[in-house]
Design brief:
Elements lengths: L2 E6 L5 E5 L19 E4 L1 H15 L8 H5 L1 H14 L6 H11 L3 H5 L2
Antiparallel strand pairs: 1-2, 1-3
Helix pairs in contact: 1-3, 3-4
Bound molecules: zinc ion.
């Protein structure tokens, strides 16, 4: 699901838009002033893509090595992917868990 970031050329505000239906891209308007005079910024989209590609590059069947832990962002992603594989949909709670993982608290929770 692509997320695009836009800057409004009328009011100069920036906002991001998630597109569930790709046809919605044509109808995008500024959230603040409804202007259609927008400049598309690609930053958020590429960040999103990076996370997806990171997720697919993580092999959860292998034990986590030091390599993964060196990048704290991978810890959260590993957990996220593992949850997906287990068919667990935690919704917003998942982000909370990922956030805990990034701050190093995730193992505390699992060991309880
Ligand atoms: Zn605007």
């Amino acid at each position: 699901m692509p997320i695009y970031e836009y800057r409004c050329n009328r009011c100069n505000k920036e906002f991001s838009q998630l597109f569930i239906n790709p046809k919605g891209i044509e109808k995008i308007k500024c959230k603040y002033c409804n202007s259609r005079n927008l400049t598309k910024l690609l930053s958020l989209f590429s960040v999103h893509q990076t996370e997806e590609s990171r997720l697919s590059s993580i092999d959860t069947s292998k034990p986590r090595g030091d390599e993964v832990y060196r990048d704290s962002r991978n810890i959260g992603l590993w957990a996220k992917k593992r949850m997906r594989e287990l068919g667990v949909d935690l919704g917003p709670k998942m982000d909370e868990i990922v956030e805990k993982g990034r701050t190093g608290k995730i193992l505390d929770d699992y060991n309880k």
